[in-house]
Design a protein that fits this description.
This protein is of the alpha/beta class. The chain starts with a strand and ends in a 5-residue tail after the last strand. About 0% of the residues have low confidence. It binds one RNA strand through α1, β10, α6, β13 and α9.
Length: about 475
RNA sequence: GGCCAGGUAGCCAAGCGGCAAGGCAGCGGUCUGCAAAACCGCUAUUCACCGGUUCAAAUCCGGUCCUGGCCUCCA
């Protein structure tokens, strides 16, 4: 049984998709006005875990991640740089995909862009106008919240108590302060679309309603984002979508908590703003970054520090060392029987159950580390057969489908290096340790670490260290 | 002010009524020519604080303090 915490009900609920074996999921993607920062990636890593886990659990995941390529910030950026909106956003769209690959984030099925779905948004707005849920004012179209009584059900805000007074100076255009723009009239700006509802550009929220319904249908299973999206963004999506279709928009809303930097909110003014690229420049390992973002429960605030990043790197390093130790075992060890199969089954079961409980990744990893410890012990006692090793490796490969931080070395050892290792073993036999150590240092510089064991010399690839 | 999270060892982090998982770091030991990795042992009488409920509380209830978020375009 899979349980998720649903923001809508504020409870953990059993997950039941609309269609058996298929999950339709919408994950809020980037606004491409700048490079994404690690706070953004915390959300994307959480979504990646969700995606991978659902596939792991046997679901066919149909996932949409939108690219917001028109909004105030992208427009400002394009004007400032005197380029078209397309040119301006292209850089950041490409960077985003590179970053995703770097963090091993699984690709969504669709990456729709707002600018390519203007007709869909317009027709949705037209429906809302016809139904009386929206109105024109000075060429813009606003959603009339008074026509949607359950407004506030996601954020659980009581609108009788708040928002009685209008704060912004230009709010006079709207009938009510809380009404929000579906379509913004454009007069002097260079970027606009001429449509049946006039010349203008879309409001922020409408793209997600239009695109999610296009690719996933009027009602779908899961919608995710950061907690800061609960209000107003997701609240408004619900209002627009449900007013238009008369149907429930989304069954499960999952939101991840924020990332803090050194216990403080991440902000440009404080200078504690890291992009993924900043960290890579500082020579941090992408797998370590992924591990750190992955292994704090998504609903808990994550305090990002360079110390914890270094710890994460070390852990990833040890996971890789373990993988390689076992791989090496495949080629060398021959004897004995263990009940490794049983242990693998139990570990797998516990790992899966932990994740099925609202993605409890920390508990799931705890199971893996206990397993590793047990296996290491058996190795030290010489109780592992090559058959056992093969089973362990295939188990680790399976786990890695979710955690994706282990990088198995599949390619054979280059001849040049193999012969150096042989040469060194000869030197060691002759107790010529000066030569042996110099070869070891030489290989270390090439990223190959040697480990002498009772069964011979083993090599592993050195992880990036900082 | 309203609403929502969170405060567990040096750091990170599970547990959410029945002897405080796990990771990283540290210390001592085994193995090693030396290493590395691994293994063994040690490292929270206590879970922000104060009360209460209970045979039993880190876990439930009440209050206090601290940190962070949202309250109209920020994941």
């Amino acid at each position: 049984m899979i349980m998720f915490y649903n923001t809508l009900t504020r409870k953990k609920e059993e997950f039941k998709p609309i269609e058996e074996k298929i999950v339709k999921m919408y994950t809020c993607g980037p606004t491409v006005y700048d490079f994404a920062h690690i706070g953004n990636f915390r959300a994307y890593v959480f979504e990646d875990l969700l995606h991978r886990f659902l596939e792991f659990a046997g679901y066919n995941v149909i996932r949409v991640m939108n690219i917001t390529d028109v909004d105030d910030k992208t427009i400002t950026g394009a004007i400032k740089n005197k380029v078209s909106l397309e040119e301006y956003t292209e850089t950041y769209i490409n960077a985003f995909f590179e970053d995703m690959e770097c963090l091993k984030l699984k690709k969504a099925t669709y990456f729709p862009r707002a600018t390519q779905h203007i007709p869909e948004m317009v027709s949705l707005i037209k429906i809302l106008l016809e139904k009386g849920n929206a109105y024109f004012k000075d060429g813009s179209v606003y959603f009339r919240i008074s026509t949607f009584p359950s407004y506030g059900k996601l954020s659980h805000y009581d609108f009788n108590k708040i928002l009685t007074s209008s704060t912004d100076s230009d709010e006079y255009e709207k009938e009510e302060a809380r009404d929000f723009a579906l379509w913004k009239a454009v007069k002097d700006e260079p970027f606009y679309w001429d449509t049946e509802i006039g010349r203008g550009r879309p409001g922020w929220h409408i793209e997600c309603s239009a695109m999610s319904m296009k690719y996933l249908g009027e009602t779908f299973d899961i919608h995710t984002g950061g907690v800061d999206n609960i209000f107003p963004h997701h609240e408004n999506e619900i209002a627009q979508s449900e007013a238009a279709t008369g149907k429930k928009f989304v069954n499960y809303w999952l939101h991840c908590a924020h990332l803090l930097v050194n216990g403080e909110k991440m902000s440009k003014s404080k200078g504690n703003f890291y992009t993924l690229r900043d960290l890579l420049k500082k020579n941090y390992d992408p797998a370590g970054i992924r591990y750190l973002l992955l292994t704090t429960h998504y609903r808990d605030p994550l305090n990002f520090t360079e110390q914890s990043l270094k710890q994460a790197e070390k852990t990833v390093n040890n996971l890789n060392a373990f993988y390689q130790r076992v791989s090496f075992g495949i080629q060398t060890q021959t004897s004995c029987e263990t009940n490794i199969e049983k242990k693998i089954c139990k570990t797998f079961e516990n790992f899966f159950d932990a994740l099925a409980d609202d993605l409890n990744i920390s508990a799931a990893m705890g199971e893996i580390f206990k397993f590793i410890h047990d296996v290491n012990e058996s190795f030290d006692l010489g109780k592992m057969s090559s058959k056992d090793s093969e089973k362990i490796i295939s188990f680790l490969d399976k786990i890695n489908e979710i955690i994706a931080v282990i990088e198995p070395i599949k390619e054979p050892l280059p001849d040049e290096i193999a012969s150096l290792i042989k040469k060194r073993e000869q030197a060691r036999k002759e107790k010529n340790y000066a030569v042996a150590d110099s070869i070891r240092n030489q290989l270390s510089e090439k990223g190959i670490l040697l480990e002498d064991t009772p069964y011979g010399t083993r090599w592993i690839r050195k992880q990036k260290t900082t």
